Amino acid sequence: MTDLLVTGVAGFIGSNFVYHYLRRYPDDTIIGIDALTYAGNLENLASLPEKEKTRFRFVKADITDRQAIENIFRKHPVEGIIHFAAESHVDRSIHDPGSFLRTNVLGTGNLLDQARKYLKGGQFLQVSTDEVYGTLGATGSFSESTPLDPHSPYSASKASADLLVKAYFDTYGLPVFITRCSNNYGPYQFPEKLIPLIIRNALNHQPLPVYGDGRQVRDWLYVDDHCNAIDLVYRKGTPGGIYNIGGNNEWENIEIVKLIISLLQEETGDLGINESLIRHVQDRPGHDRRYAIDSTKIRSELGWKPEISFPDGIRSTIKWYLTHRDWVEHVISGEYQLFYQENYGARLG
Ligand code: NAD
Ligand code: TYD
Questions:
Q1: Cα-to-centroid distance, 203 and ligand 2 (Å)
Q2: Confidence at residue 341, expressed as pLDDT on a 0 to 100 scale
Q3: What does the DSSP assignment read for 275-315?
Q4: Distance of CA 44 from the midpoint of ligand 1 (Å)
Q5: Which atom of ligand 2 is the closest one to the Cα of 129?
Q6: Which of 117, 130, 193, 317 shows a CA-CA span of 20 to 30 A to 257?
C-alpha cells in the first residue's frame, strides 16, 4: 500500500485538504508532515472521523531537514506529493525574509531532490500562488503565461520555488504540476490573515486595521474549491503544466471588512460591532494593488468550477469562527502575540 505524502497538513489549506481527500477517497491513505510552526496546529485535524484517522499518519518533520525527509521516503512507500508547507504571510516575510527563503526555496528544493530519488514515476504537485505574477492595474487578469514579477519576499520565494519545480521537470523528467490560486478563506485559517483577523478583532470590539486606503483588490475563493482543484490537477492534469485557480470574485479590502461587520452584527445582534472600529493604518510596503485570476485553462481542460458561492462561503466561515472562538485564542497564543506586539502593536492604537 502506498501513501500520498502531503506537506503542511497542520496549516490552513493543508488541513482542509486532508479532510477533503480522506472523505472523497475511502481507500486511500495519507502520510502528513508538518514542522508545526506558529501557523501549524494539530488541533486543525482533530475533527477527522475515527475511521478516517486510521488512514492518516502524521510525522513531525521540517521540509528543510534532508535526513528527516529521506527517512520518511525510506520507511513509507510514497505514491506522490502534494506540497503545501510554506511560510505564507506577506507581512512576516517583510520582517523576516530569511525564514521564507529557507522553507519555501530550500525546503522545496530538498523535497524535489528526495522525490527524484524515491518517487519512481510518482507525481509532485507544487501549491503556489497568484502572487508570483505581481500586481494588476484596474483591468485584466493573470493567465498562466503572465511573466513572473513578485514584489514581496513571500511571493519572490514562491516564484523561486516554482522555477525549481519547473527545472526538475525539464531536467529530470519529474512529473510535476504547479497550481497558482488566488486568496483563500474558510475554516482553520490562522487569524493573522485578513478575514479571520477582522472577524476576531470585531468580536472583541478591537480596531480593524485596513492597510492604506483599503482599495486593494483580492479574488477570494472558498478553501474547499481550492482543494477540489488541486485534487483534479493531481489526477487529471498534464505533467509540467501550470494551472491558475480563482473564483472570479474580486473585492476591495474595505468592502470585505464592511461585509464582515454587517454579517457579524446580523449573526450576533451585537451593535458594538460597527464601522467605527475601522482604522486606516500605514500601508504595507510593496503592497500589490490588485490580483485577478483567469482560470480558463483549468475550467476548460479539467472541467473545474467553484461550487461554493461567496455569500454562502463567507457566511458559513463567519459561523465557523463564531463556534470556534476557543480554537482562535488557542492558536494565537504565544509566538503570534509577540510578533504582532513587536511589529504592529503601534498601528492598532
Ligand atoms: P499556513 O501558513 O496556514 O500553513 C503552512 C503550514 O506549513 C503550517 O502548518 C506550517 O507549520 C507548515 N510549515 C511551515 N514551514 C515548514 C517547514 N519548514 N517544514 C514543514 N512544515 C512547515 O499556509 P496556507 O494558507 O495553508 O498555505 C498553504 C500553501 O498554499 C502555501 O504554499 C501557500 O503559498 C499556498 N497558497 C495559499 C493561499 C492562501 O490564500 N492562504 C493562496 C494560494 C496559495
Ligand atoms: P492577507 O490576508 O495577508 O493576504 P495577501 O497579502 O496574501 O493577499 O491580506 C489580504 C489583503 O488585506 C491584502 O491586500 C492586505 C490587506 N490587509 C489589511 O488591510 N489589513 C490586515 O490586517 C491584513 C492582515 C491584511
A1: 19
A2: 61
A3: GGGEEEEPPPTT---B--B--HHHHHHH-----S-HHHHHH
A4: 13
A5: 7
A6: 130
pLDDT band (50, 70, 90) for residue 348: very low
336: pLDDT strictly greater than 90: no
* Residues framing ligand 1 (Cβ under 6 A): 7-8, 10-14, 34-37, 39-40, 62-64, 84-88, 103, 107, 127, 129, 158, 181, 183-184, 190
**Of residues 21, 118, 133, 154, which has the active-site annotation?**
154
Mean pLDDT for the stretch of residues 288-307: 98
283 is catalytic: no
Average pLDDT, the chain: 95
Domains of the chain and CATH, by start:
3-185+222-248+288-308+334-347 (3.40.50.720)
The answer, yes or no, to whether residue 110 has pLDDT greater than 70, is: yes
- The answer, yes or no, to whether residue 349 has pLDDT greater than 50, is no
Q: What is the pLDDT of residues 58-67, one digit of tens each?
A: 999 999 999 9
Specify the pLDDT at position 2. 79
User: Can you list the alpha helix ranges (DSSP code H) found in the chain?
Assistant: 12-24, 50-53, 66-75, 90-95, 97-100, 108-118, 153-172, 194-203, 223-236, 253-268, 296-302, 310-323, 325-331, 335-344
Which candidate in 131, 219, 224, 231 is catalytic?
131
Per-residue model confidence as pLDDT tens digits over 233-264: 999 999 999 999 999 999 999 999 999 999 99
Atom of ligand 2 nearest to the CA of 210: 19
Q: What is the mean pLDDT of residues 262-267?
A: 98
| Known catalytic residue at 154 | yes
Query: Do 141 and 292 form a contact (C-beta atoms < 8 A)?
Result: yes
Other Cβ atoms less than 10 A from the Cβ of 207: the count is 16
Please give the distance, rounded to the nearest whole angstrom, from the Cα atom of residue 210 to the centre of ligand 2: 8
Query: What 3-state DSSP class applies to 269?
Result: coil
Å from CA of 194 to ligand 2 middle: 5
131 is catalytic: yes
